[in-house]
Amino acid sequence: MNELLLILIAYLIGSIPTAVWVSKRFFNIDIRDYGSGSAGATNVYRILGSRWGTFVMLIDMLKGGLAVQLAWLLPEYIDSENQFQNLQTVLGMAAVLGHIFPVWAEFKGGKGVATVFGMVLGISPITAVSCAGVFMLVLYLTRFVSLSSILASIAFPIFILVVFNVENPLYRIFAIAVAFMVVLTHQKNIGRLIRGEEAKASILKGRDRRKQKRLDKKKAA
Prior knowledge:
Helix 1 (2-14) crosses helix 5 (81-100) and helix 5 runs antiparallel to helix 6. The chain is mainly α. It has eleven helices and no strands. It has one domain (2-203). The N and C termini lie far apart (74 Å).
């Protein structure tokens, strides 16, 4: 019974629709009516700017991180590392499901990447940092947030199964499931990437302009 109550609380925490509430409260719009239609940090970044996009991302990460900390409320799990990690995984997934299907926002939420990252950061920080490294590298090279998220999520089970060789069966399954989930929730983005229609993040625009100027000079020479 206590476990079910914590799972419900984790889901409700994840259901907090940060992007929707920010867009309605401060801009009098529903972010889901604009851009990609997602109630996530990336869409907020594109539509409302970097300040609000960063704010939404941090809160969405906090939801995942806070959900896994609920496991400490059941001290009987603390003595067993595997059982404690299993409980954290279940609670984190409940928060992620809440983010994707928020009860507070007509069950139409975001894609869950930031919440998953916050969850993993709370369970295994070194894995989260490694995935963040993949994300930042791809973002630096391509400026595509969606592609960065997809490749970081695919790297997640590789880190868990191969690099760090985590033995917990449930966590291994979770890592694989996250990769599939992120790919599935980014199908529209994948289509736009293939067609060359995906919008790039505004960061590093200066670098790209300098690169283009160098290319133009070479062509003119």
